[in-house]
Amino acid sequence: MQHQSARRTATLAESHTETTEILMPDDTNNLGRALGGSVLHWMDICGAIAARRFSRRQVVTASMDHVDFLAPIDLGDVVVTEAYVFETGETSMEAKVDVYAERPSDDEARRETATSFFTFVALDDDEEAASVPDLRCPTAEQKEKRERALEERKERRAELAEQG
User: Which domain holds residue 17?
Assistant: First the structure.
């Protein structure tokens, strides 16, 4: 009889990633605001880092849900992108990715500017889909964060289905 080893686990907190940029002219449009493509790029990178941290493997982006651009990001703003894994499959990970802008010199509060959900697939050394750890949320804060992400994604998908 062969003994099956238990799948490794990882926590939501282990995946948490935050990246920071200053919005510079090369990433702005003619209005001095962030290009949507630049924001998507930062979101994809931050989400991929979260998925790599979680799975401890190379990952590829499988999909991105509808992206909501909620507020503009102005030239010179500090752009903070946050991501974490909140759900897993056999080889895939769902990450919530949020983008905020702030202007510390103006004592301005951080404002949410974009949000979406990304799906990443883990790869083995042969670049084939590889299993990912089971998600654990050992603290109340991690459990609440996961539940909020699951609920928000469910609501968004329902809204899109109604529109579509």
Answer: 9-163
Q: How many other CB atoms sit within 10 Å of the CB of residue 28?
A: 17
115, 117, 133, 122: which is closest to 63 by C-alpha? 117
CATH number of the domain where residue 111 is located: 3.10.129.10
CA distance 92 to 54: 11
Domains contained in the chain, number: 1
Q: Enter the tokens of residue 10.
A: 């990882």
pTM of the model: 0.92
Model confidence over 81-124: pLDDT tens digits? 999 999 999 999 999 999 999 998 888 789 999 999 999 999 99
Tokens, residue 68: 């909501």
pLDDT over 90 (residue 3):
no
Region 3-11: mean pLDDT is: 73
Q: Which residues contact 77 (CB under 8 A, 6 or more apart)?
A: 22, 23, 34, 101, 102, 103
CA 68 distance to own-chain centroid: 13
Quick check: 13 and 142 in contact, CB under 8 A?
yes
Q: Are 27 and 42 within 8 A, CB to CB?
A: no
